[in-house]
Amino acid sequence: MHTMRTTQRLIQISDTHLGRDPGPIRAGYPDSDTQLERILDALPREPAADVLLLSGDLAEDPEPVTYARLTKLLRARHEPMLALAGNHDDSNTLRAALEPGTCQVHGEIILGPWKLIGLDSSTPGEAAGRLDAAECERLERSLAADPDRPTVVALHHPPVTIGSAWMDRMRLLEPETLFAVLDRHPQVRACLFGHIHQDFRTRRGSIELLGCPSTCVQFTPGSEAFAVDAAMEAGYRILDLHPDGRFDTQVVRVPGTRIAMEPSA
Ligand SMILES: [Fe+2]
Questions:
Q1: What is the CA(90)–ligand 1 centre distance, in A?
Q2: Distance between CA atoms of 47 and 58, rounded to whole angstroms?
Q3: Which residue range(s) make up the domain with 211?
């Protein structure tokens, strides 16, 4: 019976960057739709995810037609989903397209003894992120209401630098507003983000800060300027959330999702 399973599995996919039309969003890139399909097909079935987190930049071109294709690609999924807006997304268009289905946008999901809270760090017209006062208050209220529930907080933008100058300029600005809330609530175990198109892991106090690969293209770690890591496969992150408040996490790479290296004719 389902209640026998106490560990909850969260799977994060990120930065799908679907274009207005199917196909590569720029020269040298793979087809974003095909890449997403490959990742979805590769997700583990046993145990399957209890929630699928889509951590932003779901569209490259944030139009209804793009999100309609995303909805279609996600239609066969059975797990609950929580989506976040990234800097390339439009929060309202995303919500209008996804929320009539089984995918909620921002908000929160209870996972057995755990909670997942999704925040909107997107700021119209800006690549960098920001949490406005309303999002900070929503986070504060949710954490204050459930002090004994181990919690994962997710947003698109990293609240820390990752040692990559061009990317660090467009991280979450004024991260101290987020950390001021998190520091008051020791039940927060992890903060997940996308945006950086690479695996990343650091710690701040008792909170693990975890980045995620893109389903589309990977960026080169430690690079001063924009650089695509053509040798790295696309992937996703798994978190297994245990009932005692501990969790295990790993990034899984999917074969066949590397950028093709053949010289073009
Ligand atoms: Fe982004």
A1: 12
A2: 25
A3: 9-253
Distance from residue 122's CA to the centre of ligand 1 (Å): 9
Distance CA 83, CA 80 (A): 10
| pLDDT (tens digit per residue) in 59-87 | 999 999 999 999 999 998 989 999 999 99
pLDDT at 155 over 60: yes
Going from the Cα of 263 to the center of ligand 1, the distance in angstroms, rounded, reads: 28
Per residue in 167-194, pLDDT tens? Answer: 999 999 999 999 999 999 999 999 999 9
- Is residue 95 domain-resident? yes
Tell how far the Cα of 87 is from the centroid of ligand 1, in angstroms: 5
Largest CA distance in the chain: 60
75 CA distance to ligand 1 middle (Å): 24
Q: Structurally, how many domains does the chain consist of?
A: 1
Q: What is the CATH number of the domain that holds 61?
A: 3.60.21.10
For residue 264, is it within any domain?
Answer: no
Contact 162, 200 (CB under 8 A): yes
Distance 66 CA to ligand 1 centre (A): 16
In eight-state DSSP terms, residue 218 is: -
What global pTM score does this model have?
Answer: 0.95
The total of other beta-carbon atoms located within 10 Å of residue 228's CB is: 16
225 within domain boundaries:
yes
The answer to whether position 259 is within a domain reads no
